[in-house]
Amino acid sequence: MAPYAKLLTRFSLHSTHLFRALQLRQMASLSKNISVTHGNFETLPNKVKDFVVQKSELCQPDFLHICDGSEDEAQSLADLLVKNGTARKLEKMDNCYAVRTNPADVARVESKTLICTENKHDTVPHTRDGVRCSVGQWTEPKEMKEKLQGLFQGCMKGRTMYVIPFSMGPVGSPLSKIGIELTDSPYVSMSMGVMTRMGSKVLNSLGDGDFVKCSHSVGQPLPLEKPDPYNWPCNPEKTVITHFPADREIISFGSGYGGNSLLGKKCFALRIASAVARDEGWLAEHMLILGLTNPQGEKKYVAAAFPSACGKTNLAMLTPTLPGWKAECVGDDIAWMKFDEEGVLRAINPEYGFFGVAPGTSMETNPQALIACQKNTVFTNCATTDDGEIYWEGLEKEVNLEGRSVTDWLGKPWTKESGTKAAHPNSRFCTPAGNCKVIDPLWEDPKGVPISAILFGGRRPEGVPLIYEAFNWQHGVFVASALCSETTAAAEHKGKAIMRDPFAMRPFFGYNAGHYFKHWLSLEDDKKHQLPKIFHVNWFRKGEDGKFLWPGFGENCRVLKWVFDRVDGKHGVHKNPPSDIYLKMTH
């Protein structure tokens, strides 16, 4: 048998060497037509190389820039945007820039945002024939991939492909996930450096692991067929934002606006992550996270889900009016939550910055946000003064316009008598979370913070009380599933219709909403789980005179105090069948 054993050993070694040779021959190789202007392509993990080569062959960029997340890189991107006429440096502020977009590219485009699954009802619930589902839009993946292949063919000619390695959540946290975004937009690259943990440390953490693949293009190869008067390349007629949950992939074309192009935000952190969370037994939610400490030093963490532009950032950075109470911010938009081994629901903020709605933000409504965005911030579609300061509706007391000229978000001269808005209603500030003076000490804790209560709410001008408490977990899921809110400027909707927005996730479900409700209900099955109390709030009820009945903002701490005490079983409640437990404002 010995000769056969030797022969088999030699054959095995020969096969191994042959396999390795074939592997080397098939290793990803970047086209010689592409110049690497920043970073070292050869040091990228093999899976990342494969992704870059595959997409660069399709998109045909002239240059490749591998982002390292350094301050020097951020400055060079800002300088490039200024040179291109896309951004203006704001001289009166600390390392801040103002960007104006094409007026056709100012918000999330829900009508062109699609989930692609083999089975339609993995994405949307069953409806009657001819009835359009309002909680998710489905399309067949093979057909969409063919369409995208055509759109992306040569779409980056003359441009730079930026390779953005980013971590959603603290790098190395067991709750975090990694993505690689390929984009031809320096605006996206700079903004991702603010909104995510981005750069070389992410690649080091990734190694040969898997990642969410994110591809984005503004859809305007160079040279342009006609001049761009806005210095904001985009392709609104062909815009499409697609998600492939089974492949853990996002492909976005034609829009440079943050919600459509910063693919770590809603696309990854909610749509793809909610599908991953279902598969892995956790939650990816459109929620703020805040820590609340009473005068006795006891602290609890609360998560709260409101639709976009309904006050998440204001509540997350609350300045309490009650003496002795302290509020601290963990996150203002997205929460990833998972039960630990002891059954405690723990949450992280997967983002690294704030992408807040600017109009209405002031020292009266949200002083912490306004202070935070005074440095290292990218403002989009705000107004600017001639001497380099930012302006929007709500800053009348903070910014003295006397003797100064103002340019509105469209680049036109503006005065208070113009009869138009100085800033777009969905104008944004993109600022590092570390700028926030009330950032929670545990906001980057890889274990997450323990959640004691969850709030749901929206804009309801009539018929819905300030707060009520759900009877139990099942009732809480019902309350969240029935959530409604008045539409806002955060998406392309017109008017002020009341829309169903279950869990404040209507535009962000990554899978069938019915399956999503079932997933929430299933969390009760594990008796070890310590389920948070659930509440519904409404800051936006109006009187007959059209004015808000509740002062809101810092006064919301009074409602949070009641929530805090209800978690401990304090305070009597008034039960009003079938569903409401109302707050007694006795304190």
From TrEMBL:
Residue ranges of domain Phosphoenolpyruvate carboxykinase C-terminal P-loop in the record: 282-576
CDD domains in the record: PEPCK_GTP
EC number from the UniProt entry: 4.1.1.32
Alphabetized InterPro entries for the sequence: PEP_carboxykin_GTP_CS, PEP_carboxykinase_C, PEP_carboxykinase_GTP, PEP_carboxykinase_GTP_C, PEP_carboxykinase_GTP_N, PEP_carboxykinase_N
GO-annotated biological processes: cellular response to glucose stimulus; gluconeogenesis; glycerol biosynthetic process from pyruvate; oxaloacetate metabolic process; propionate catabolic process; response to lipid; response to starvation
Keyword check for Transport: no
Top-tier EC class: lyase
GO MF term (any one): GTP binding
Subunit structure: Monomer.
Listed name of the protein: phosphoenolpyruvate carboxykinase (GTP)
Organism: Clytia hemisphaerica
